[in-house]
Amino acid sequence: MMQDKINQYTAEIKAANPANAAELEEFRIKYLGTKGIIKDLFDEFRTVSPEEKRVLGKVLNEFKQLAEAKYAELKESQESRAKSQDIDIDLTLPGEGFELGSRHPLSLTRIEIIDIFKRLGFVVAEGPEIEDDWHNFSALNFPEEHPARDMQDTFFIKKNSGKDDIALRTHTSSVQVRMMESGKPPFRAIMPGRVYRNEAISARAHCFFHQVEGLYVDENVSFSDLKQTLYHFVQELYGEGTKVRFRPSYFPFTEPSAEMDISCTICGGPGCNMCKYTGWVEILGCGMVDPNVLENCGIDSKKYTGFAFGMGIERITNLKYVIRDLRLFSENDVRFLKQFQTEII
Ligand code: PHE
């Protein structure tokens, strides 16, 4: 009886041909496992008569060796097959290319502006986009209920008594206040960041945009320092020979205030539709920091003077790349964005 079984299993083992590692494992469990056939046969062997034992002992041991040898052989052949599959790669095939992203045009402009001012010794300062009334308006000499607050169509988050209003900042001048409040002059910093104004979205206006503002406070800072710094900035950004002109203007936080125009970057002067046939385009607002602002921030306005300026990154970018629709900057259309491939990584 046992002999018959062994004969049958022997035939089965010889014919076994597991196709993969899982089937090989099934083979092992079936014959060699702790509850497998060989274990069962040895259990049964203990119950047979001494005469039978003499014959069957040898047969059973041979059978066990056969099963173990077959398992070892199958395992080795499967492993070597797997190995040869591993290196079965055509090394002459071209590699998979990967696409390089590109910088957003506004980032390119921001980086360029920061670079220019860094070379002049300005540091970069940042502040929160959600601001209180003090930092966005009051400290900057906007009187309460003053119509100048309407100049900057504000998104209010919490409208309280005016003094405690919380709003999305309308300009990064708020960062100038934070900087002056928390440090001591001299200050020489630029403040890049996103700002918000409640305007209908069109080709020429958006409800958010990006600014870089600058602040320079020290003893004996004069309007000529302001002019020279901005003149230098424009030569670096738009190339030598770009002309500048200053027109008187009004901001609550600067006195005197001015707006700066540059000769049209597209036509260079004679007039085109970018400069509305004037030859000039406005790029920033600036002025001498109002003594009230210095005092609001705890700075002695008898000892210190300063200048400040602020520009829209979108505007600077439009002039540089001749982009006529502001909405392109926030639509994330890759066909637009891909045109700004650059070496700056
Ligand atoms: N904060 C002004 C604005 O957003 C710009 C500005 C900054 C003007 C500094 C003068 C001086 O319009």
UniProtKB/TrEMBL annotation:
Main localization of the protein described in the UniProt heading: cytoplasm
Reactions catalysed, as given in the entry: tRNA(Phe) + L-phenylalanine + ATP = L-phenylalanyl-tRNA(Phe) + AMP + diphosphate + H(+)
Cofactor note: Binds 2 magnesium ions per tetramer.
Transcription found in the keyword field: no
Enzyme class: ligase
Compartment(s): Cytoplasm
PROSITE patterns attached to this UniProt entry: AA_TRNA_LIGASE_II
Residues binding Mg(2+), per UniProt: 255
Record key words, sorted: Aminoacyl-tRNA synthetase, ATP-binding, Cytoplasm, Ligase, Magnesium, Metal-binding, Nucleotide-binding, Protein biosynthesis
First and last residue of the signal peptide: none
Coiled-coil residue windows: none
Gene3D superfamilies attached to this UniProt entry: Bira Bifunctional Protein, Domain 2
An example Gene Ontology CC term for this record: cytoplasm
GO BP term, pick one: phenylalanyl-tRNA aminoacylation
GO terms, molecular function: ATP binding; magnesium ion binding; phenylalanine-tRNA ligase activity; tRNA binding
Pfam families, A to Z: Phe_tRNA-synt_N, tRNA-synt_2d
Domain Aminoacyl-transfer RNA synthetases class-II family profile: start-end pairs: 115-319
Cofactor names: Mg(2+)
EC number annotated for this UniProt entry: 6.1.1.20
Record family assignment: Belongs to the class-II aminoacyl-tRNA synthetase family. Phe-tRNA synthetase alpha subunit type 1 subfamily.
Subunit structure, interactors included: Tetramer of two alpha and two beta subunits.
HAMAP family, per database record: Phe_tRNA_synth_alpha1 (MF_00281)
PANTHER family: PHENYLALANINE--TRNA LIGASE, MITOCHONDRIAL (PTHR11538:SF41), PHENYLALANYL-TRNA SYNTHETASE (PTHR11538)
Name recorded for this polypeptide: Phenylalanine--tRNA ligase alpha subunit
Organism: Mucilaginibacter ginsenosidivorans
